[in-house]
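Researcher: Re-running this chain for the archive, since the previous output was lost when a drive failed. Same request as before.
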Amino acid sequence: MKTNLALALDHTVINVHFEMDRAQAIFESLGFSLTPRGRHSLGSINHLIVLEDDYVEIVGLPTDTDKLRQEVLNSPIGIDGLVFQTNNADQTYQALTQAGLAVQPVQAFSRPVELDGATYAASFRTTRFEAGTYSAGRVYFCQHLTPELVWRKEWQSHANKTIRTAAFLIVASDPAAEAKKYLLASGGILKKGTRGEWRIHAKKYSLVFVTHAQYKQCYGQLVQENTARESFFGAIALRTKNLSAVKQRLVLTQQRFPEVVWREQPDRISVSIPDFNTLIDFIK
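Model: Regenerated structure tokens:
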């Protein structure tokens, strides 16, 4: 599975448990266009922030049923998923098991999507590592059987001018050792960065691995520590065409949600959303 570049990113996940209404309000206030609320056959709900080639999934749990998706319920609130693209979940499963890695059987599920008065089934097949393989959260592979029901132009335009995921940050006591574990999933080549961080590069994004001290040095009071995990997903970096558009939305957001705080730098704006233990970097 190793190549010069890591696998393409499918999506990242922010877990909000039973607070989906509040999460929707905050992310829309930040200037994201969210897809209509989806309901998975597994017992979870979601909204997507659909970008050019990937997306951010805001996943939560319904309040009107006892059928709850256990892996979402068992995971803490915050950035909780790193998902790579696969064209064939079964082949991915076979390759990983032949490599001696612990993976779950391929899982198939769907959610209804309403378009122009008609209802369609957005369908997926996923290959997941066994729980605990990656202490920071869930890492898996997603095959889209109906990509046309996800990447739609009407959902890809955002007031904050976000276009794609630029980087995904993992915080660990030993970043180099942690990064080597991710190579098993992502492929690619691991290199040390100019600021002491470790990086796995893909065509359009990077996986970045830092120590707790480096994380705090970079983000200061904005850090979102997750003490329940040995390592954790520290931030999602999103590429935007216009930082001024991001700033305009943040001014409005802070009027409604004063707990959302941010810091502006020449090349980025870092935003902390404490309610959901989430840090987002907007990068020009």
